Amino acid sequence: MSEFPFSKVENKIQEKWKKHNVFQTPKNPKKKYYILEMFSYPSGDLHVGHLRNYVIVDLLARYYAQKGYDILHPIGWDAFGLPAEEAAIKNKIDPETWTLKNINTSRNTLKSIGIGYDWTTELMTCSKDYYKWTQWIFIKLYENGLAYRDTAFVNWCPGCNTVLANEQVEEGKCWRCHSEVNKRELDQWFFKITDYADKLLEDLKYLDGKWPEPVITAQKNWIGRSEGAEVDFAVENSDLKLTVFTTRPDTLWGVTFAAIAPEHKLLSEIIKNSSEKSQVDEYVIQSLAKTDIERTSTISEKNGVHSGVFLIHPLNGDKIPLYVCDYVLASYGTGVVMAVPAHDKRDFAFARKYDIPIKIVIQPKCDKLDVHSMENAFTEPGIMVESSIFTGKKSDVAIPEIIEYLIDKKVGRKKINFKLHDWLVSRQRYWGAPIPMIYCEKCGIVTVPKEDLPVTLPENIDDYLPKGRSVLSGIEHFVNVNCPKCGADAKRDGDTLDTFVDSSWYHLRYPDVKNDKELISKGKSNSWLPVDQYIGGMEHATGHLIYFRFITKFLNDIGVIEVNEPAARLFNQGMVCGADGSVMSKSKSNGVEAGQFVVNFGADVCRVTTLFLAPPGKDAIWTEQGVAGVKRFLDRVWRLGERIKSSSVEKHTEMTVQEKDLDRIMNMTIMNVTNDIEHWGFNTAIAFLMEMVNKMVPFKNSNSPVFHRAYKILLQLLAPFAPHIAEELWEREGNSDLIIKSGWPQHDSEAVLADSEEIVIQVNGKVRGRIYLAPDIGKQKTIEKAKIHENVSNYLQGVKILKTVYIEHRLVNFVIKKD
Ligand code: ANZ
Ligand code: ZN
Ligand code: ZN
Fold first, then answer.
1. Among 111, 192, 279, 365, which is least packed, fewest CB within 10 Å?
2. How close is the Cα of 724 to the center of ligand 2, in Å?
3. pLDDT for position 196
4. What percent of the chain is modeled with pLDDT above 90?
């Protein structure tokens, strides 16, 4: 039995595509579709797990192209960053050589599986004509007051010898090398992303239903909006005051102590004459060695020391002892907390431990609390007691009135806080975009003039090893410059930018990669933005995906682009695991090397296996049986092609019973495959194609016009999944044009309707999907099928289904609880 001769065919077809320039981006798109996978890190050898993302994106690009859309499907490399540098230090080659070599390897693999990129768009963040614009964005942010320098306690990774952004610290450890992160006080550059906190949160509503719910929720929590008040407390025997942030101004009369963060800027000033100074100093040193997680963990016991200083309650004049406590974070709110043991669990435990008085100011409606018998804080709303003029009021209702009262007395104000912090962007490492700033003794901080951009990274340096200070700051010919304003001797900034800055805007460059006058022209921006479909891993929910939205919004605000969100739709693909069940990775050596796999089995087997393993959103296990099954399928398609080749088409006559059956199956397949592609059911789409082939193989009459038509349709439907074999067989059918230009088949609803019915699936009354089922399938099966529908299942993840409405032959509606 003959097999698909992939090694002969695939190369030839790739050459044919190249000759026809099929994947070139159209100049003036009418119906545009911009599809993008998350930026690739050039790690060199790719394993088949890496390919999932590329293959999914390519499938959609080809599908939409076949449907007549104008496609932008670009490729580029997130080429700066630590791994290149570490490899350089280890192997004594420079990071650029290492990076370019790796890009070359990855690029060849992607070419060998025939991904349809427009290679003229290829960009890399380490090239001068790219990072020129990264630096330009930095300067624009600076000019708009959104980039600033500040001394701050920052996350320091001793393993990487550099600072990290909050988003790069995972459970107190470095996201890259997993060293324990500690705090260091350093002068650093920040982007003021907090100015965009409100917009980043507000605009999530536009992404509802278009971005995965877990990403939206993760962003909401990360931004962490919290409404409350700031209240000023005077420091006793001093002119200083401390401001607290509280979400519970209704508990103000119950404050019995206050707590300040160990890193608070005023702390040393406040305790300078205190009798407790030495014990506070010691406590501060201990706290800084801890991670934020350790400090705020709900299981560890809260501790602190008395500062020896008292605050004055702004409303009743009480003397309030001030403690220094490491559970108070300097980076949130004001770094000072008014503590109300009766109504806050943490304060309650602390008060019991240090024997601090507890004062009840909110009573439950029915019960009556007593300080001595209380076993925990009462944190619910209730009726205010012993609270001056507010006594007797409902606590939650009184909050706005209390804030008015504070404003009136000039001791407080309404305040909205965000958990989101400003984005720390300077790094002390070599392999990144230099920060385009100059320090002049006379002029202060001066930006590099636009015509002098890019500030290029010095090449061939002796030592890439950071020594607790920036690598670049040790390179004389780099740091010493003349001030662009006054000409005097000045110094360049020696830090480089976090690579997340590079990847925050790359999607804006692809439509206009060659433009050396602007980041993107108005015309290109209007033609192509935003990205229509973005695809990548869930792990970027609160890092890259927040930066990417922030920079897009900023560039929109200063008129560079017209869009306000970077990507209209987002899809999170799952991971690919090796045969051992754990995620494929180089370090675990459970990866199947992609280049070699393609040599052994061919690109199409590789693609279809990847897509057939599991729904794209779920994790999948790569197995040899999976590969073998797919190979068998493509070989059968190939043999169908040989049968067709040696047959001739009969004149159309009245359809036989078998022909009617095949015609119906063909129409069902068109409908199901189309529907599944649109709803992320690539694996089930392949299953439908397999079923169709299974029906065609035993079909007796090779000369039947219906058989020939079904075969043609099969090739068209198969093309986005297995483009090489489909193209070759299409050519053998005598078609002069490429299959991608042949259009997408339409099903004949009458032929289909004869046998199945459409069921609409809703979640809370909104249509989230459709399935086609045999009329006699019954209630239970229908509901089961509806639940696992790819799109619908996204909405049902982690929520409680309160009720399932079923209307026979028509509809399933899941009523869920949303919190
Ligand atoms: C008094 C109070 C009484 C509070 C009460 C709560 C309950 P969210 O919702 O997360 O914004 N807080 C303020 N700044 C803090 C900091 N830097 N580190 C640790 N805790 C801090 O929480 C705000 C509440 O967390 C604030 O309201 C404050 O305690 C505390 F019955 O003030 B509250
Ligand atoms: Zn590290
Ligand atoms: Zn100057």
1. 365
2. 43
3. 98
4. 76
Helix axes 657-678, 48-66, angle to 10 degrees: 110
Residues that place a CB less than 5 A from ion ligand 2: 157, 159-160, 174, 176-177, 179
258 C-alpha to ligand 1 centroid (Å): 11
Cα–Cα distance, 713 to 669 (Å, whole number): 9
Q: What is the CA radius of gyration of the chain?
A: 32
The string of pLDDT tens digits covering residues 345-354 is: 999 999 999 9
Q: Which of 337, 347, 418 to mutate to test the pocket of ligand 1 (most atoms within 8 A of CB)?
A: 337
Atom 22 of ligand 1, residue of closest alpha carbon: 247
Query: Considering only CA atoms, which residue is closest to atom 26 of ligand 1?
Result: 246
d(CA 19, CA 14): 9
Q: Which residues contact 406 (CB under 8 A, 6 or more apart)?
A: 229, 231, 249, 314, 412, 413
Whether omega for the bond prior to residue 530 falls within 30 degrees of 0, making it cis, is yes
> Which of 227, 231, 247 has the most ligand 1 atoms within 8 A of CB, as the residue to mutate?
247
Check whether 585 has a pLDDT greater than 90.
no
CA distances from 22 to 70, 71, 416, 531, 692 (A): 11, 10, 52, 20, 29
Higher pLDDT, 771 or 68: 68
Half-sphere exposure of 589 (CA within 13 A, CB side): 0
- Spatial distance between the Cα atoms of 538 and 534, rounded to a whole number of angstroms: 12
Mean pLDDT of 614-623: 92
Distance CA(590)–CA(770), nearest Å, equals 38
Residue 524, φ and ψ in degrees, nearest 5 = -65, -40
Spatial distance between the Cα atoms of 315 and 406, rounded to a whole number of angstroms: 9
Residue 51's closest CA among 109, 98, 108, 91? Answer: 109
Token output for 225: 């909006």
d(CA 585, CA 460): 32
Ligand 1 interacting residues, C-beta cut-off 6 A? 226, 245-248, 251, 328-329, 332-333, 335, 337-338, 340, 343-344, 417
- pLDDT for position 144: 98
Most distant CA pair in the chain: distance in Å?
106
List Cα–Cα distances, 415 to 52, 143, 235, 266, 333, in angstroms: 46, 27, 22, 21, 9
- Tokens 């399938």, residue located: 777
State the residue for tokens 């949160």.
201
Q: Please, what is the end-to-end C-alpha distance for the chain in angstroms?
A: 59
Q: Are 246 and 417 contacting, i.e. CB atoms less than 8 angstroms apart?
A: no
Provide the whole-model pTM: 0.85
- Contacting residues for 239 by C-beta, under 8 A, at least 6 apart: none
pLDDT at residue 614 in the model:
92
Task: Outline where DSSP puts E strands in 10-146.
Answer: 32-37, 70-72, 76-77, 123-124
Q: How much distance in Å is there from the Cα of 174 to the middle of ligand 1? A: 27
What is the pairing mode between strands 766-773 and 757-763? antiparallel
What region does 680 belong to: left with phi over 0, alpha with psi -120 to 50, or beta?
left
Ligand 1 atom 32 nearest Cα = 246
Bridge partners (DSSP) listed for residue 163: 156
Cβ(278)–Cβ(364) under 8 Å? no
Averaged pLDDT for residues 614-638: 94
**Backbone torsions φ then ψ of 42, nearest 5 degrees:** -75, 85
- 8 Å CB contact between 191 and 425: yes
Q: Which two tokens stand for residue 344?
A: 């806050």
